[in-house]
Amino acid sequence: MVSHQRVFVGNLQQFNMVEIGPTTTAGDVLSLMDAQGALNGWAGSGGWMVFEVAQDFGMERPIRSYELLADVQASWLKEKTVNYFVLKLTPLATPLSRSAIPSSAPTHSGYVEWEAKRGKWSKRWLRLREHNLWLAKRDNGKDEVLLCSLSNFDAYVVTRNHKSPKPFAFAIKSTDNMSFFENTDDYLHTFSCSEKDGSVWLEKILIARSYVLYQERHVLFSPKSSNENATAALSRSGTKKYASNSRPIHPHVPLPPLLAPKSNNAVFEPGSLLAKQL
């Protein structure tokens, strides 16, 4: 299924309409917009990336160049059409590039403020290990519980005004649709910490997710089939028309040899009554 989506550049003042199909990646959109000159003249540091703006939750995340945009759209709530894609310059472009995927997933740990319930925050020890996020009351990890797996969760920056106890807020949100969750509290987890710690947490989790994608969805990294262009060319080819003064050429089929005449010039078969009368 193909959809037409507005893709903004830098802010909401400029956008291009982009056709997004089942195999369209964020890198494809970047190349298209760059070829159209949409990325010229912008100031900033880092490289260009497509961002998913989850406006319904007030957060955003960078989309890796090899991710399928149709998969991102599938996670959006259909009854809310407020989410969109925007191209931004970001220092995360380098650590999230295809060439920067590590040979093993990173680990990290530290105290953060965790929003246990809406508006209620508790200090917790957060640990990233074994491609999962674990939560505990103390740093000895004796009572830690599995919070989520990065197989289907990713890191987001909270952009909406959030009454968090620390200046930086980030979230871990499922990349699946919310309809897959019986308990919607498991769909999203929000944390707060200093900006310095938050930047480290965000990068570590994003890189760990890149590693999981590479290991579990290796098809995203396979080159597109070399037969695609040939198939497309065939689908565009029309029926051949012959010139009005020409005819289709058929292959030559040799005819069987004619029966040789009999040596006695007999007209009727030997033994027949007519032959006896002659």
TrEMBL record:
Listed InterPro entries: PH-like_dom_sf, PH_domain, Ubiquitin-like_domsf
Gene3D superfamilies linked: Phosphatidylinositol 3-kinase Catalytic Subunit, Chain A, domain 1, Pleckstrin-homology domain (PH domain)/Phosphotyrosine-binding domain (PTB)
Domain spans labelled PH: 105-210
Name recorded for this polypeptide: PH domain-containing protein
Source taxonomy: Eukaryota, Fungi, Dikarya, Basidiomycota, Agaricomycotina
